[in-house]
Amino acid sequence: MDGTILVADDDRTIRTVLTQALTRAGCKVHATSSLMTLLRWVEEGKGDLVISDVVMPDGNGLEMLPKISAERPGLPVIVISAQNTIMTAIQATEAEAYDYLPKPFDLPDLMKRAARALEQKRTTSPATAEPEKTDDLPLVGRTPRMQALYRMVARVMNNDLPVLITGESGTGKSLISHAIHDFSDRRTLPFVIATGADLVSFDGPSDLLAKARGGSILFDEVGDLEPEIQARVVRLIDSLPSDGPRIMATAQRDLTPRLDVDGPGGFRSDLYYRLAGAQLDVPALRERVDDIPLLAAHFLSRAERDGATLRRFSDDAMTQIRAHPWPGNVRQLENTTRRLVVMSPAEEITRSEVEQVLGTFAAGPRVIAATDKLSEAVEKHLRRHFDLQGGQLPAPGLYQRILRDVEAPLIEIALDATGGNQAKCADLLGINRNTLRKKITDLDILVTRRRKLM
How many angstroms separate the Cα of 191 from the Cα of each of 41, 130, 149, 249, 378? Predict the structure, then answer.
């Protein structure tokens, strides 16, 4: 035999006999009289097999089985018990123990069962295990952008580098983080999602580390953290032990334009560089239009599994869906598909039904009348943006996103109007020339073509 076996029994003689026999057979053995110690070993990732008594000084071995299974799925447990009743055997079976032996047990028999359990664990490759199926956004896509993202996920999966995942709301950032954890060597350890509220108290960071152990901690929407919370995250990362959890974070926008900016919109550069060991950018749905039919078909199939009548999109309906900008990304496509399944009376979902759900914006950009004031046009656009969220609020950080969306085209148009002359453009806008240059860099405004006009 080959492997590490955890033995838990309150009888010292039994612990000694099992330790000697298993060691002679080639195994490493950790023996204890405490279920709490056993569970700690399991949580730390020790052991390829557990042999445990039922009645212990600090608890019931059968009641411990679900906790062991939750911590280490696939870890076999052999239950040994002096309570030789049919109920004990049934409880062991219901708790999904690998095997059950009544005391007094035959040692050669126990050794054979232990050998089978270890062999079964070895032949059940963890690399082939799939993460639990959920109703979250599907991680599917055939476009080059998504295939490149998948390759990046594969490269960082079993790397200890911290990972920063950026992308608009509804693109599936949290799903990417789950995939990194669920397919990695840490899959049997906890996945903890942390928010700013988890770090407010003095004990917050230590509590997070205790929950995550050697698993993964995801800081959700790290760009929304207050400055003092950002400082706490820096200290937490710096205090991680060598066997500590992996750090991941999500953000809706590229954080680099906000680095060390004074005020509430700023982001600490020291935290950014600690989080961005590897950065994954999840594309918006409008940037991978060819994946829309695949995603829509997935949502129709999911609705059918949930009891709805099978539906399909007409060619015109799919053309309309592909043409929509999808500001809410994959999440909005999912909600829209659900509504269409409910609304459509026929098997085929039509273009008119799609237009009815998406609103007039689906038919194309609205032409702004010459008599419209700028404020009125902006108000109409913003109301349409809220209407397209399917009854939900837009993602947090709307104020900064709107300012950025207005600021970039304003500077671009002003540069065009001044022939690319940055001094004239700064004067036109009423801002300092150095400020203009910084904004051109921060907003990633292409000025190469305009410089040729100077």
Answer: 18, 16, 21, 12, 42
Would strands 163-166 and 59-60 be described as parallel, antiparallel, or unpaired?
unpaired
Structure tokens at 396: 């947090």
Sign of CA dihedral 104, 115, 45, 130: negative
Question: Cα 311 to the chain's mean position, in Å?
Answer: 30
For residue 49, the surrounding DSSP H or E stretch is: strand 49-53
> Is residue 191 classed as helix, strand or coil in its secondary structure?
strand
Residue 442 has pLDDT above 90, yes or no: no
Mean pLDDT to the nearest integer, 178-196 = 87
Q: If you search the block for the tokens 């496509």, which residue do you land on? A: 333
CA-CA-CA-CA dihedral for 41, 47, 53, 55, to nearest 10: 20
Q: Is the pLDDT of residue 21 over 80?
A: yes
Neighbours of 347 (CB within 10 A): 9
* CA R_g for the chain: 29
Tens of pLDDT, residue by residue over 194-246, are: 887 888 887 888 888 889 989 999 998 898 888 888 999 999 999 898 889 99
Distance linking the first and last C-alpha atoms of the chain: 79
Print burial letters for 369-399: b (CB count within 10 Å at least 16), e (below 16).
eeeeeeeeeeeeeeeebeebbeeeebbebee
The pLDDT assigned to 99 comes to: 84
DSSP state of 78: E
Q: Residue 217, SS3?
A: strand
Q: For the whole prediction, is pTM greater than 0.70?
A: no
Q: Could you read off the pLDDT of 250-259 as tens digits, one per residue?
A: 998 888 888 8
Q: 349: helix, coil or strand?
A: strand
Does 309 score more than 90 pLDDT?
A: no
DSSP class per residue in 257-307: GGBT-SSTT-B-HHHHHHHTTEEEEPPPGGG-GGGHHHHHHHHHHHHHHTT
Residue 452 main-chain phi, psi, to 5 deg:
-65, -20
